[in-house]
Write a structure and sequence with these properties.
The chain has a single domain, classed as Glycosidases (TIM Barrel). Helices cover 39% and strands 17% of the residues. The chain is built from 16 helices and 17 strands. The strands form five sheets. The protein has an eight-stranded parallel barrel, surrounded by five helices. A three-stranded antiparallel beta sheet has the order 1-2-17. A two-stranded parallel ribbon has the order 8-10. A hairpin with a 5-residue loop joins strand 1 and strand 2. The longest helix is centred in the middle third of the chain and has 25 residues. The structure holds D-gluconic acid. The site of D-gluconic acid (GCO) has 11 residues, from loops.
C-alpha cells in the first residue's frame, strides 16, 4: 500500500504512511552515554571543552548524562515497549580507538556489539553513525579536522567498527552534520574544539568530507551488503528584508549552510562563487579528493529543525509572538516540506531518512507523573504531515526518527533544553515516556495518525 490521505466526517484527516515506513528515534554517544573513562575510553574534545568554565551554559558535562552506557538494556526494552522500528545512535571514536589512531580497544567495541545484539533481538534496526562530534582529544592536539591526517584516521577507525559490526548492521552512517562540526567547532567556537577561524573551518569542512569518502570506501569493502549513508542538516534561509545586502547575505549563507556538504557528496562540487566570496584558496583540495567525496551513497539522512532569516548586519530578530521552541528556534513546518522537495529536485538522491526532527519545549505540565507535552506532539505531528505530503509528491522518504529518544546533554546549552519524548530524571535517572512518546508509539502501531 502506498501513502494515503483520507478525510473523516469530523473534519480531520487520517494520514497513512507507506508500508514499511520506519518509525524510530535518535541519540548520540556524548549526549547520553556517560561513563567517560570506562573500559578504556579516552577524552574527546567535548570532555575537554566542558572542563573550561563558561563553555557550557549550566556548567555541566557528559560524565553521567543519561548513563546509557550502563542502562542500554533497559533503554532498548523501553524502545521495544514503544514499538519502534529503528534506533539511530553514534559510536564514540574514543571508546574504539582511544588514541585516535593505532590500537583498537576491544572492550570499547564490545559495548556497541552488545547494543546491536540487544536491538536486533528486540526487532529494532540499528543505525549507527560513526562520528557525532566527539573527536579524540589526541587528534585535536595534532590539529583535529584542520589536519588532513584526521580523515585517514577516521577511515581506519571506521574499518575497525565495520569489521566488528558489519555482519549485523545494514546501514552505516559516516558523519553527522559536518556543517556543525566545521562551523560551530572551528569558525564560531560555540562547540568543541572552540576555534574561531574561517580558514580553519574551511579546511575542516574539506577534511570532514574527505573522511566521509574514505570511510565510505572501508564500509563498501568491509560490509558490501550494507548501505552507506551520511547525515546532513539543512536550515532553509530567507532574507530578513528585500534589501540587496540581505539578499546577498542569504545567497552565500545558503551556500555555506545548505549546499556546502550535499553538493560535493552528490558530485556538484563546492559552490564556487561562495568559496571565492569567503576567500578560500582551496589549497586543501588534492587530486582525486572530489571523486572520493562524491562516490555514490545509498541513503541521505536529513536533519531539520527550523528555518532562519539572514540579514547582512545580523540585526534580525523574530517578531514577538512568533511560535518558537525554548531555544528560540521558529516553529515552521511548511519549510520542512519545501526543503524535502528541493533536496529531491536538486540531487539524484536514492533514498531519504529523516534522521532528526524534534524540539525542546517547556515540559511544565504534568498529569500525575507524566509530562503532557501537547506542544511537542503537535510539532512532531505537523512535521510528519509535511513528510507525508512530500512522499505523496514522490520524494523517496523511507522513515522518520524523532530527535530525541531522551532528554539529554544539549551541547553548549547543557541539560536545560529538553528534546526528549522520554523524560530523564537527572537525579534518579528514571526514564518516563512523555505524552508525545505514547502518541508516537500509537501512531506507529497504526502507521499513521489523524490531523485536523
Ligand atoms: C544535531 C545534533 C543533536 C542536537 C540537536 C538539537 O545533529 O544537531 O545531532 O546532537 O542535540 O540537533 O540541537
Amino acid at each position: 500500500m502506498s501513502s494515503s490521505e483520507i478525510a473523516s466526517s469530523e473534519g480531520s484527516t487520517r494520514l497513512t504512511f507507506p508500508d514499511g515506513f520506519i518509525w524510530g528515534s535518535a541519540t548520540s554517544s556524548f549526549q547520553i552515554e556517560g561513563a567517560p573513562t570506562t573500559d578504556g575510553k579516552s577524552p574527546s574534545i567535548w570532555d575537554t571543552y566542558c572542563s573550561v568554565p563558561g563553555n557550557i551554559k549550566d556548567g555541566s558535562n557528559g560524565d553521567v548524562a543519561c548513563d546509557h552506557y550502563n542502562r542500554y538494556v533497559e533503554d532498548v526494552a523501553l524502545m521495544r515497549q514503544l514499538g519502534f522500528d529503528a534506533y539511530r545512535f553514534s559510536i564514540a571514536w574514543t571508546r574504539v580507538v582511544p588514541d585516535g589512531v593505532g590500537a583498537v580497544n576491544s572492550a570499547g567495541l564490545d559495548f556497541y556489539d552488545r547494543l546491536v545484539d540487544e536491538l536486533l533481538s528486540a526487532g529494532i534496526q540499528p543505525f549507527p553513525t560513526m562520528y557525532h562530534w566527539d573527536l579524540p582529544q589526541s587528534l585535536e592536539d595534532n590539529g583535529g579536522w584542520v589536519n588532513r591526517d584526521t580523515a585517514y584516521a577516521f577511515a581506519d577507525y571506521t574499518e575497525a567498527v565495520v569489521d566488528r559490526l558489519g555482519d549485523r548492521v545494514k546501514t552505516f552512517t559516516t558523519l553527522n552534520e559536518p556543517f556543525v562540526s566545521a562551523n560551530h567547532g572551528y569558525v564560531v567556537g560555540e562547540h568543541a574544539p572552540g576555534h574561531t577561524s574561517m580558514e580553519m573551518g574551511l579546511a575542516a569542512s574539506h577534511h570532514l568530507l574527505l573522511g566521509h569518502g574514505l570511510a565510505g570506501e572501508r564500509i563498501r569493502a568491509g560490509a558490501p551488503d550494507a548501505r552507506l549513508a551520511i547525515v546532513i542538516n539543512f536550515t532553509p534561509l530567507e532574507p530578513a528584508t528585500d534589501s540587496e545586502a540581505d539578499r546577498v547575505e542569504t545567497y552565500h549563507r545558503n551556500h555555506l549552510e545548505n549546499h556546502w556538504y550535499s553538493d560535493p557528496v552528490f558530485g556538484l562540487g563546492y559552490p564556487e562563487d561562495t568559496a571565492d566570496h569567503v576567500g578560500w584558496d582551496r589549497s586543501e583540495i588534492q587530486d582525486g579528493d572530489m571523486e572520493i567525496i562524491s562516490a555514490p551513497i545509498d541513503l541521505l539522512g536529513v536533519n531539520f529543525y527550523t528555518r532562519e532569516f539572514a540579514s547582512a548586519d545580523d540585526s534580525f530578530e523574530l517578531p514577538e509572538g512568533t511560535p518558537q521552541n525554548t531555544m528560540g528556534w521558529e516553529l515552521h513546518p511548511p519549510s520542512f516540506g519545501k526543503l524535502l522537495r528541493w533536496i529531491n529536485d536538486r540531487y539524484d538522491v536514492p533514498s531519504i531518512l529523516i534522521t532528526e526532527n524534534g524540539c525542546p519545549m517547556p515540559d511544565n505540565i504534568r498529569d500525575e507523573n507524566r509530562i503532557v507535552d501537547d506542544d511537542r506532539l503537535d510539532y512532531i505531528r505537523s512535521h510528519m504531515a509535511q513528510v507525508h505530503g512530500a512522499i505523496e509528491d514522490g520524494v523517496p522518504i523511507e522513515g522518520y526518527l524523532v530527535w530525541s529518544l531522551f532528554d539529554n546533554f544539549e551541547w553548549a546549552w547543557g541539560y536545560g533544553p529538553t528534546f526528549g519524548i522520554v523524560e530523564v530524571n537527572y537525579e534518579t535517572l528514571e526514564r518516563i515516556p512523555k505524552k508525545s512518546a505514547l502518541w508516537f508509539s500509537e501512531s506507529k502501531s497504526q502507521n499513521g495518525f489523524e490531523i485536523s
